[in-house]
Amino acid sequence: MSLLSREVQEHYLKSQESQRLSSGQGELERLRTQAIFTRELPSPPAVVFDTRGRSRYSRVLARTTGYQVHLIDPVELQLEEARSHETASGVALASITFGDVRMLEITSGIADAVLLLGPLYHLTERRDRIQALGEARRILRPKGILLAAAISRFASLIDGLSRGFFRDGAFREIVAADLYSGQHRNSTSNPHNLIFPSP
């Protein structure tokens, strides 16, 4: 069963995400996110739910004694990669589960922290984003921490200017639509037009 749009599924099936955080702007994102973890996450022992399978973050936290990390993702490929890394590295997560952030099959009030570092990119309808945030809040303990990431409608414009993509007419059309709708849609096969995973 697919919980994501066809475009998002196709993006993740290409397995680009596993390398994205290793170099360039992705590495900057990873280092900044890890710095925020250090500053904002509760001290161990703590129960953390990573609701989008960037298992790199889950693995970093699982290496810290006292963090019980549960990984949830709607893309089976991401889950398979997390399981493979778990076997190869010996760094075990508390659980690796297929699921939808809008309908978490998790007991209320058990999480010390919830990571929403991806779902809000792909949930383009306001009601879905509110439902995901509500589910995160539901499973958090009182005074639990929610760390969420979103992408501005100006992201493609800024990235395109900094990387010289505006020579491409199709890219300019995508940026114009992004600015109008707030949703990044790439109908081309050019990966440079897919700066972020399609919502």
What can you tell me about this protein's structure?
Helix 5 (76-89) links the parallel strand 2 (67-73) and strand 3 (95-98). The chain is globular and about 50 Å long. The protein contains nine helices and five strands; from the N terminus they run αααβαβαββααβαα. Mean pLDDT is 83; it is low at 195-199. Helices cover 46% and strands 16% of the residues. By secondary structure, it is an alpha/beta fold. The protein has a five-stranded parallel sheet. It has helices at residues 6-13, 17-20, 24-40, 55-62, 76-89, 119-122, 126-139, 155-163, 169-181; strands at residues 46-50, 67-73, 95-98, 111-116, 140-148. It has two domains: 6-148, Vaccinia Virus protein VP39 (Rossmann fold, 3-Layer(aba) Sandwich); 155-193, no CATH class.
- Give me the number of helical elements: 9
> How many structural domains can be distinguished in the coordinates?
2
Low-confidence stretches: 195-199
The gyration radius over C-alpha positions equals: 17 Å
Query: What is the chain-wise order of helices and strands?
Result: HHHEHEHEEHHEHH
Overall geometry: globular
The tally of beta strands, per DSSP, is 5
Q: What summary fits the major beta sheet?
A: 5 strands, parallel
Provide the CATH superfamily of the largest domain: Vaccinia Virus protein VP39
Arithmetic mean of pLDDT? 83
Oligomer: single chain
Task: Report the top-level CATH class of the largest domain.
Answer: Alpha Beta
Enumerate the strands of the largest sheet in spatial order, edge to edge or round the barrel.
Answer: 3-2-1-4-5
| Relative helix content | 40-55%
Helix- and strand-based class?
Answer: alpha/beta
